[in-house]
Every structure is written in structure tokens, then in C-alpha cells.
Specification:
Helix content is 42%, strand content 10%. The protein is mainly alpha-helical. The chain has a domain of 30 residues. It has a two-stranded antiparallel ribbon.
Length: 93
């Protein structure tokens, strides 16, 4: 019986240590996005097991303007520029 008691006590100490570690990990849990925007798709749900730095949680759609560049011939550029000016807008480089 003494052996069983010591084994149970060791198991309880192990479980207590695991609980302490899990509680400490929860205190350090923080999710930050590198950009502002709105959440597009949630890829995990409450209760799912995730790993640090490896599980994709969601995707974010930015609301800031997106700059892009492309090649266009001069005739087409001036056609769009005239249309934009006629609507009261402007063409940005």
C-alpha cells in the first residue's frame, strides 16, 4: 500500500506541475496581427488545439489602400486620365 500511495502522490505532483505550466503558458498567450483590417476567414474554432508559430488562425483583409504597378501603353494611359479628369478625379502615379 505504501508503494501505491507514493505512486499516486508522484502522479499528483506531476499533474500539479503540468497545470502550473499550462497556466503560465496561458498568461503569455497573446495574438497580434502585423496589420490592421478585418477578419476574413476563421480557420480554427474555440477548443481547437493550435501550436505556437505554426497554426494559421485566420486571414485578415486590409482596409488600407493597396498600391500596385503595371505597364500600360501611353495611348491607354491618357484615355483613362481624360476619363478620370472628366469625372472630377485624378490619376496618381
Amino acid at each position: 500500500r505504501r508503494r501505491e500511495y507514493l505512486a499516486a502522490q508522484a502522479q499528483m505532483q506531476g499533474a500539479t506541475a503540468a497545470l502550473t505550466t499550462a497556466s503560465l503558458n496561458m498568461e503569455f498567450t497573446e495574438i497580434k496581427a502585423p496589420l490592421s483590417g478585418r477578419i476574413d476567414r476563421r480557420l480554427v474554432s474555440v477548443g481547437n488545439l493550435v501550436q505556437p508559430d505554426s497554426t494559421l488562425l485566420t486571414t485578415i483583409v486590409t482596409r488600407d489602400p493597396i498600391d500596385f504597378y503595371f505597364d500600360v501603353d501611353e495611348r491607354l494611359y491618357f484615355s483613362y486620365a481624360r476619363d478620370a479628369m472628366a469625372r472630377g478625379g485624378s490619376m496618381q502615379e
